[in-house]
Specification:
Elements lengths: L5 H5 L10 H49 L10 H9 L4 H39 L1 H16 L2 H12 L3 H25 L3 H9 L4 H40 L2 H11 L3 H37 L1
Length: 300
Amino acid sequence: MSSIPGEELGSLEVDGADLPPALAAGHAGREGAGDSALRRAAVASALALGRGVVTLVVVLAAWILFLKAFHISSFVGKGPLDVWRYLTSGSDAAANRSELLSESGYTLRDAFLGLAGGTVAALACAVAFNVWRGTSAAFMPIAMVLRSVPLVALTPLIVAVFGRTLVAVTVITGIVTFFPTLVYVTLALRRTPVESLELCRAYGGSTAKTLWKVQVPSALPSLFASLRIAAPLSLVGALLAEWLATGQGLGWNMIEAATESDYNGLWTRVVVVTALSALLYKVIGAAEQKVLARFGALGR
């Protein structure tokens, strides 16, 4: 067997110039595809960043215009620069950031517990309504009547039953998130294409298998649509629970800041709640893309 001298090995090219035409074409095609994918990713990232910057500018401009249009006193109405100074300058800035971080942790915990509890309960009811149609006719009107009762009126009763505990917080926040998910998912399960259901049953699929293999995947877009609505509402429920039940978190400290005329702190907490709401919305959107892509791949 002949060997290639070291000097000849050193002179070989790896960019496809000295390869046979077919291999060179394949090499160039792979490089082109990789460059194209990188360009698309860069363009998508730039567009996302641009949209984020535009949104931020519009929100800040609307904030400033709101203060000026309604001639709100500078003592009460605080602008973006006031919030920025509250967080970054002065001897209390570090303490302010630490307090906000701790309060945000409480509020996110409360919102997550309520969102998770309300979603699980809503999914269980939606499945029951789908499997046993009589339960829907019996209990859906009751659910709608309960939905019409203001949560502020129910909160003292919930606190009296469960105490000022995480259970009470979960119930209060879960009520807010329960009804959108129940309605969306119930309707989605009922709107599953009849052809798909009949095909699954023709192959001997049980009710449980038909539900899991056909109805649940078809209802996923509606589930995530309801979650995008329910996630910001869960923050509202968490704030309400903190105001009326637990006495901690962003909700309680917003009341304290208003009572003490700490309007810099109050406006900053409003900004934090708004940012957390947008963050939850984005997180659910990202989860939706991954879950729907996975179920789509399984379907193919």
